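Hi W., the glyceraldehyde-3-phosphate complex you wanted:
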Amino acid sequence: MVNYKDLGLVNSRELFAKAMKGGYAIAAFNFNNMEQMQAIIQACVETKSPVILQVSSGARKYANQTLLRYMAQGAVEYAKELGFNVPIVLHLDHGDTFELCKSCIEYGFSSVMIDGSSHSYNENVELTAKVVEYAHKYDVTVEGELGVLAGVEDEVSSETHSYTQPSEVEDFVSKTGVDSLAISIGTSHGANKFKPEQCTRDENGILVPPPLRFDILEEIEKRIPGFPIVLHGSSSVPQDQVAIINRYGGQMKDAIGIPEEQLRRAAKSSVCKINIDSDGRIAMTAAVREILATKPTEFDPRKYLGPARDRLKELYMHKIINVLGSVNKG
Ligand code: G3H
Ligand code: 13P
Ligand code: ZN
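Structure:
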């Protein structure tokens, strides 16, 4: 058993309290490999922004649990070496069992999500409360979820979504003891969040997706004032990067994300954590495709992963400065 505090990590409690007061959100960026981790830390040091390093169960299998523990510790030391000791949370994204949450806590995670949203309400309460009871013994913070997001990914999949019911949130929060709550108000996972026929077109012919359900968010805020809310599925799917992917042999069709101004609005509310994974995948893929296509003789991975890392860093800095507002909050 390794305690996250010995790795130099923090849990999310104080970060969320400050974000709530300050009207900004903390970035939760998913990572699976060294280049993504380096890009996240470089961006956060440069912007003096706190960050949640987020690992899905698929990412944990991909990278290996022991390596991840040392990578997180390395991230803390790397930030210091770059000149700013940013607060770093190591968080399990979409934990689906008590055993997985327990194992992550034993391997140095400072925060876990138990996603019981595919279960019945009562089973979700029971599972979440069990994880909270265990996690709080080690001062690890817990995110629960009410409502189901649409979208299909490796291990996070749901064909349809159902919005969070505000009438359930007080009961869920008080019965489980969770530290934050992920809600469903119209975001979804992946790069194809909406079908074109669900969208309207602006004056330039650009597809505009249906707005997030801020009315549901406001109702939730009324019922649990000051309680940290989490938004999953918050990639905006940058169209310039999608165009690069498609120009250089990729086939991303009808990729549509959440407009950034909607996320800016959410970040000013009680939304304290915004999850972004797909945008990073898209930026990295665009850079790799572009380089491999324009420099066909190149075969040194550093020559395409290095620029991909730079493009990721640029993306993360943009999110921190222009969307989340967490710049200089570290
Ligand atoms: O919400 C899910 C994350 O984007 C992680 O996706 O399970 O493919 O690692 P993954
Ligand atoms: P995106 O697919 O929109 O990046 O969402 C990521 C996420 O919610 C991770 O939990
Ligand atoms: Zn998610």
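The pocket of zinc ion (ligand 3) is lined by residues 94, 156, 189, 232-233, 275 (CB under 6 Å).

W.
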